[in-house]
């Protein structure tokens, strides 16, 4: 007898039961395989269940495992674990269908449908149907079983689709999601056919549960336990790390992006949680295994140190030690510093904060500026001069000041230039560099020494590209020779929280035609969280990192509870609420390190952490050196959460005067460009923080709540 498990449901159930019960599963599987008639197993047919092949078996005094045992087949399919009554309720309306079209074993939930009475209702009039352009036959080929076709015909809008989603099995739901997002049925069927080509059971007349289990397509949904007494390593791995199965199975769409041979740079866009980083990591592996020669290396870079560290750790579990030696995971500023120091044989000292402010104040005094022009001058330097890599007065005189609304006369420009030159000279005298200076110096060195191949990089993968400075991309272009599969860039302008818009074409990176891709399906966040997060940024426009507009719209595969948003009288009341919710979550089986508390400011972070300690809740700050597996509540600023994800997220201190920060608003109030840029960054920051949550989000404040949640204009 072979024993397999239905991933999505079984893993969910498994993650909710106590550790002692989890350990019993392995023994139970062995026992089932050896002798299913073993009386001790207490195998019982569940007559109340809709599916005639459903059985239950005793795991312990309290828990039962639900399984499917198709007649005349030598297989047990584990689907659920729960207390007796709850398990019965769960299984009651489920039907397990080996679907010849999708080559998978599907789970249909008739209970949901019948409760809503949707099966017997009238279909939506033609033209008002989200899937009107999909024929019945195409729906069938997409895996919709015949009796469910009338249900699809009732779906008028994307919102309707949300309500109906739990009815569909995951694979068909995913295919329908693609169509709902604008893909043609033919395109989606093409993806399916590619899979069928891989399937050895494609021509069989009857499609059985055993066929579904052995079909390669099922590798995403079914885990197989090995035939010998030791459990298959894969099953054990997935059971122990249920949230990371994407490391093993990619969706066919993702797979095709990862495995293509591209004639030049590729750009992949997609909203939060659409799998961009997952794809980037798989791409690194694929490049090494299929496209690169021995000795050629891959650079994997991103914007922040914490994220680079996190990516390195995950990559090291996906790649062999030998492959890992051929990949450098490093954030862009560290890379630039490395090149500049190696190339110029000099020590780079980064200057920022008060030293730099003091230098600017000195220059402003010398050139007789009013103190309130500080923001204007710094922005002119960062947004126009540094952004465009300008180094001479002639260049500055002729550069279009795109995105700067305050006009400046020629004489004013000259005064600005004199002030800037003073700062630049002084920085040189002290041997000080800002990060952008280092990027530029590194690039200039590479351009002047084209034959120098410092690190044997043949290709680069760039994550979180929206926050990369133009100088960063120019540096990468100078570092990686133009060739097939040279640059793989993933990013999302919705999440830009550090830099200004980049135009890849202006950095010598030319993305053409089919090398520009967009992912639309969110695998991380529930639709409820996604929608709430999108509300915060809905009035903004987003670029495609190359001078165009990103009109993309995403959809989440999962449904969940609505975000909880609450404001409290004072900070203590807010923190007490958070602590009590955390205690409840821990009691319900959520692990400490699955919970994150994010706050707008560093001061707020200290307060939150003190509060957790006071209540004996171990906590840890998000940082490049932290170990995310330690059983601690993860705390960090919203900025630090970039690129990460957690099961439950609290955004605390989301106060009116924190988000956006009133002090910064005041400083920028006379600079409309800067003010708008800052507000947009703050909206994106909130979007980023909210979309870190997989299952549930709590947003709290003391005093009035941030206006960004109620009024996306931020006014
Ligand atoms: N093929 C897949 N199967 C299952 N889960 C997946 C798959 N692809 C992605 N995911 C899940 O979605 C999560 C989000 O993926 P990822 O971090 O790559 O998204 P992203 O687009 O880079 O997000 P962000 O831009 O918000 O940081 C992953 O952690 C993973 O849990």
Automatic annotation (TrEMBL):
EC class (word): isomerase
GO BP, one annotated term: recombinational repair
UniProt: ATP binding residues: 270-277
Catalytic activity reported: ATP + H2O = ADP + phosphate + H(+); Couples ATP hydrolysis with the unwinding of duplex DNA by translocating in the 3'-5' direction
Coiled-coil segments: none
Domain (UvrD-like helicase ATP-binding) ranges: 249-526
Record key words, sorted: ATP-binding, Helicase, Hydrolase, Isomerase, Nucleotide-binding
EC nos: 5.6.2.4
A UniProt-annotated Pfam family: UvrD-helicase
MF GO annotations: 3'-5' DNA helicase activity; ATP binding; DNA binding; hydrolase activity
PANTHER family: DNA 3'-5' HELICASE, UVRD / RECB / PCRA DNA HELICASE FAMILY MEMBER
Name of this protein: DNA 3'-5' helicase
Record organism: Thermoactinomyces mirandus
């Amino acid at each position: 007898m072979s024993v397999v498990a239905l991933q999505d449901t079984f893993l969910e159930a498994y993650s909710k039961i106590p550790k002692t019960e989890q350990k019993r599963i392995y023994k139970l599987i062995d026992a089932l395989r050896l002798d299913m008639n073993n009386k001790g197993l207490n195998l019982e047919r569940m007559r109340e269940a809709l599916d005639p092949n459903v059985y239950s078996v005793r795991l312990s005094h309290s828990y039962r495992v639900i399984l499917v045992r198709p007649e005349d087949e030598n297989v047990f399919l584990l689907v659920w674990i729960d207390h007796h009554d709850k398990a019965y309720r769960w299984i009651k309306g489920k039907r397990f269908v080996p679907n010849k079209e999708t080559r998978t074993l599907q789970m249909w939930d008739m209970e949901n449908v019948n409760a809503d009475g949707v099966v017997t209702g009238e279909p939506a009039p033609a033209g008002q149907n989200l899937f009107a352009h999909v024929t019945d036959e195409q729906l069938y080929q997409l895996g919709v079983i015949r009796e469910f076709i009338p249900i699809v015909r009732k779906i008028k809008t994307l919102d309707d689709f949300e309500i109906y989603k739990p009815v569909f099995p995951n694979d068909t739901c995913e295919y329908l999601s693609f169509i709902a997002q604008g893909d043609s049925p033919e395109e989606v069927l093409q993806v399916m056919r590619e899979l069928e080509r891989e399937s050895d059971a494609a021509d069989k007349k009857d499609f059985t549960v055993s066929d579904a289990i052995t079909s390669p397509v099922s590798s995403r949904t079914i885990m197989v336990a090995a035939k010998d007494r030791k459990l298959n390593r894969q099953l054990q791995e997935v059971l122990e790390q249920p949230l990371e199965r994407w490391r093993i199975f990619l969706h066919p769409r993702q797979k095709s992006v990862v495995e293509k041979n591209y004639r030049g740079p590729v750009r992949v866009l997609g909203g939060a949680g659409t799998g961009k980083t997952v794809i980037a990591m798989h791409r690194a592996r694929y490049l090494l295994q299929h496209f690169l020669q021995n000795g050629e290396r891959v650079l994997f870079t991103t914007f922040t140190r914490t994220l680079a560290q996190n990516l390195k750790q995950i990559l090291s579990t996906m790649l062999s030690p030998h492959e890992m030696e051929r990949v450098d995971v490093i954030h862009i500023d560290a890379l630039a510093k490395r090149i500049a120091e190696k190339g110029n044989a000099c020590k780079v000292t980064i200057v920022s904060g008060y030293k730099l402010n003091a230098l600017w104040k000195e220059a402003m005094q010398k050139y007789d500026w009013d103190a309130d022009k500080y923001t204007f001058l710094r922005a002119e330097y960062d947004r126009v001069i540094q952004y465009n890599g300008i180094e001479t007065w002639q260049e500055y005189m002729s550069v279009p000041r795109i995105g700067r609304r305050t006009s400046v006369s020629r004489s004013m420009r000259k005064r600005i230039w004199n002030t800037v030159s003073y700062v630049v000279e002084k920085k040189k005298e002290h041997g000080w560099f800002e990060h952008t200076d280092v990027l530029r110096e590194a690039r200039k060195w590479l351009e002047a020494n084209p034959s120098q191949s410092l690190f044997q990089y043949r290709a680069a993968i760039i994550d979180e590209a929206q926050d990369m400075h133009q100088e960063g991309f120019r540096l990468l272009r100078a570092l990686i020779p133009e060739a097939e599969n040279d640059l793989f860039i993933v990013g999302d302008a919705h999440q830009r929280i550090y830099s200004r818009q980049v135009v890849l074409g202006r950095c010598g990176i030319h993305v053409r035609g089919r090398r520009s891709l967009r992912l639309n399906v969110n695998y991380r966040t529930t639709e409820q969280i996604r929608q709430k997060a999108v509300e915060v940024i809905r009035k903004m426009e987003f670029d495609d990192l190359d001078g165009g507009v990103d009109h993309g719209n995403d959809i989440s595969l999962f449904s969940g509870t609505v975000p909880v948003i609450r404001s409290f009288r004072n900070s203590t009341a807010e923190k007490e609420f958070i602590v009590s919710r955390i205690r409840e979550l821990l009691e319900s089986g959520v692990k400490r390190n699955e919970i994150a508390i994010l706050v707008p400011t560093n001061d707020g972070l200290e307060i939150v952490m003190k509060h957790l300690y006071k209540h004996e809740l171990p906590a840890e700050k998000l940082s490049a050196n932290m170990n995310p597996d330690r059983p601690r509540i993860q705390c960090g600023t919203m900025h630090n959460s970039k690129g990460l994800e957690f099961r439950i997220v609290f955004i605390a201190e989301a106060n009116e005067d924190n988000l956006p920060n009133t002090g910064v608003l005041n400083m920028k109030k006379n600079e409309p460009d800067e003010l708008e840029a800052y507000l947009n960054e703050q909206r994106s920051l909130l979007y980023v923080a909210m979309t870190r949550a997989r299952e549930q989000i709590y947003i709290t404040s003391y005093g009035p709540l941030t206006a960004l949640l109620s009024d996306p204009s931020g006014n």
